[in-house]
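User: Structure tokens for both sequences below?

Assistant:
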Amino acid sequence: MKQKSRMKHELIPNESKRNETFKKKIVRLIKKANELSTLCGVEVAIIIHKKGRRRYDLGEDNAVLWPSPPIFSERLHKFLNHPDFETRRRMVKHEKFMEQITEEERENVSKWEMRCELQESRQLMNELMKQDHMDDYFHELELYQLDLLNTFVTEMLKKLERRR
């Protein structure tokens, strides 16, 4: 028994063989679409457009519309006007969605960092108030601790301003 040779999925260099394959594949595709429509009770529409100068029996505009141009047009309009299509069209793409989520999480992290800094600043301020000799304690503080104190004081001043 002769084994069927597998066709490579690349452009067929010989134009006459390419046209012959094209015609055979269209016939098979339409047959499969017809089977799908009949067996599953679904509406199928196919558009095939071939580039090139010759028209290869595809009509004036180089296009095959199956089952026929009016039925194809009717099915296309039905699909485009379907409420689900409109919903899908408005759906955010996954990448865009992930960018939005990432940005929201960055904002949340930033808010929590600010809250943590303010809490640390409060604790530092409380320790400072407990000291008998504040001057000595200030000299022991590191730069980031002084920065935290500055942030705390700034936030407290903003709160006071809002109360006025």
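Moving on to the next sequence.
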Amino acid sequence: TLVPLQYSVTLWPRLTPDPNDLYLFTGNSSVEFECMEETDLIVIHSNKLTYSVLDNNHLGQLSARGMRLNGKLARGQRYRLYTEFTGELADDLAGFYRKRMSSYLLALVVCDYANLTAQQGDTLVIRIWARRRAIEEGHGDYALRLTDQIALPDFYFGAMENWGLVTYRETNLLYDPLTSSNRNRETTATIIAHELAH
């Protein structure tokens, strides 16, 4: 019914506990969306957030499902919903949490780190982030400014993670977009990811 077009999200984590020994964060979100079918409900996908401001031109009541509007949104029109909220930086691996592994969907790290940057053209940027002192001492200077991959028709091994030039058996780097199966494409992507991870 509603198709999001653009998000603007600000998160402010408190890195020291509040008087109740909780680590909190505040934030705001502005979402621009297009209405595909007339509706008076905006579903908000969030968990464990307390909303302090929920504002747009069609104010309504907030419930567990979302926001029930006082009027209907018109099909084909664009709208913007602005919210402000508070949540807890917990250690339960749910939502925005502290000191744990990434969610594989979005990783956000709050730190005072430095980085080494390599850039090729306008689009390819590779960065290594680490403690400022480690970067200053050159601990990340091994990062390659360029890594090539080559497909060899008669390569004995499946692939080899050579420094600066990763070599592959041709069938492990290339696939035919017209005839290769999804399984073949998945295998190719897995092998490339494995070699580059070395």
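User: Anything stand out in the second?

Assistant: The two ends are 44 Å apart (CA to CA).
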